[in-house]
Write a structure and sequence with these properties.
Layout: H1 15-24, E1 41-47, H2 52-57, H3 63-67, E2 74-76, H4 83-92, H5 96-99, E3 105-108, E4 113-116, H6 136-140, E5 146-151, H7 159-164, E6 169-172, H8 176-189, E7 193-199, H9 201-209, H10 214-231, E8 238-244, E9 249-250, E10 256-258, H11 263-266, E11 269-275, E12 278-283, H12 289-303, E13 307-311, H13 312-317, E14 335-339, E15 344-346, E16 360-361, H14 367-370, E17 371-373, E18 375-378
Helix pairs in contact: 8-10, 9-10
Length: 383
């Protein structure tokens, strides 16, 4: 059985539309929303790789942030629970089935190649119109909202930034503290400002050393101090939301599973995409129906006890990608292997095997990966 979030669960797609509505007094034309008090300006902080489970387990290192969080102060991210899909949904208010970024490495059907959704733009593998929806930064300008994106210098002109942050003026800050200082200035100086603030450091450290490492904890403490510094000196009438794109689980090398260990699991598979916690298998185009069914059955026999084995039709029917546009459908794997145990899947035939060094992982449907915090400060603070 697939885990199905309740229809009443708040979704990541609603966070930015809700902030915009608080500035304009009008619901946005795209994306769901939830009620927030009116605000003069708004900051929305997205912390890459900070799930509610990660935060709760280390609440003593983030006392300011966790002090305002109740059990229901959370939202569900997208499936797959990965940065490219989640930030695109955050920035457009649309599900992956509409905006088209349906994973980490996905098929470009017209070119029969896999493309990394974060850096494939620079490699020329993805065209500018691959992200198919207008951003909320673009559409909110019609309501008089001035949008800014505050992030690291390395992302200022990336293809992914251009695709998902269109309509926002980019301001670069090298450190967490630099970025918070820039956000504070913008909130103070620009009436009607919408400031998107991005913190990638925790995710980077989780991948490299694990979210239970000392360096990850140190970064969490820096983040908490920065949130406190801004939260206690918010300009009058400004509100701040803090959320994330996904959570993280640590997977040791002893828990790696290689998809090519059994030739029967890759016989008929043309591309192995996705990511270690959510593998996307693309079948050979000429594979007939009986061979496809047999391949799915082999996967369920081999891995059904520790992963959800889901066909493309099943995942679409379950609504995990939201409404899926016809042009997006072939980007989704013919078969998805979404880990539910503490394992990560790799292909030992890959030329570049650096990904096997990663400790922190995400992408699947577990609560640890898909449930993220929603903290409120300033004008948005709970009474």
């Amino acid at each position: 059985m697939l885990p199905a979030p309740a229809d009443t669960d708040r979704r990541l797609a609603a966070v930015l539309p809700s902030a915009i509505a608080s500035l304009t007094g009008e619901p946005t034309a795209s994306g769901p929303s939830f009620a927030l008090p009116r605000a003069r300006s708004a900051a929305v902080l997205l912390v890459d790789g900070l799930g509610t489970a990660n935060l709760a387990a280390r609440r003593g290192h983030a006392r300011y942030l966790t002090a305002v969080l109740g059990k229901r102060d959370a939202v569900r991210t997208v499936f797959p629970s990965t940065t490219a899909a989640a930030i695109a949904t955050f920035a457009t208010g649309a599900d992956p089935g509409r905006h088209g970024l349906v994973g980490y490495r996905t098929l470009v059907p017209e070119r029969d190649i896999l493309a990394n959704q974060l850096n494939g733009w620079e490699a020329g593998l993805i065209q500018p119109d691959w992200q198919r929806r207008p951003t909320l930064f673009e559409t909110s300008a019609e309501y008089g909202v001035t949008s800014f994106a505050v992030g690291a210098p390395r992302y200022a002109d990336s293809g992914f930034t251009r695709a998902v942050l269109r309509g926002a003026e980019y301001r670069a800050g090298a450190s967490i503290e630099d970025r918070f200082a820039i956000a504070r200035e913008l909130l103070d100086e620009v009436d009607g400002a919408l400031v998107y603030l991005y913190v990638p450091e925790l995710d980077q450290l989780a991948h490299a050393e694990g979210w239970e490492s000392d360096r990850w904890l140190a970064a969490l403490e820096r983040l908490d101090a920065a949130v406190m510094g801004l939260g206690e000196r918010m300009p009058r009438g400004a509100g701040m939301l803090v959320t994330a794109d996904h959570g993280v689980v640590d997977i040791p090398a002893s828990r790696h599973v290689f998809v090519d260990r059994d030739p029967g699991l890759v016989d008929g598979v043309r591309h192995v995409g996705g990511e270690p916690r959510n593998v996307a298998l693309y079948f050979e185009p000429g594979l007939d129906a009986s061979d496809r069914e047999a391949l799915v059955a082999r996967w369920r026999d081999a891995e059904g006890d520790r992963a959800w084995i889901i066909t493309r039709d099943e995942v679409i029917d379950a609504g995990l990608f939201g409404v899926v546009d016809d042009d997006v459908r072939p980007r989704i794997g013919d078969l998805l292997v979404a880990a539910r145990a503490g394992v990560a899947y790799y292909d030992s035939r890959e030329e570049n095997r650096q990904a096997e060094r990663m400790i922190g992982q995400h992408g699947s449907l577990s609560d640890e990966e898909s449930r993220v915090p929603l903290a409120r400060f300033g004008a948005y603070a709970k009474p």
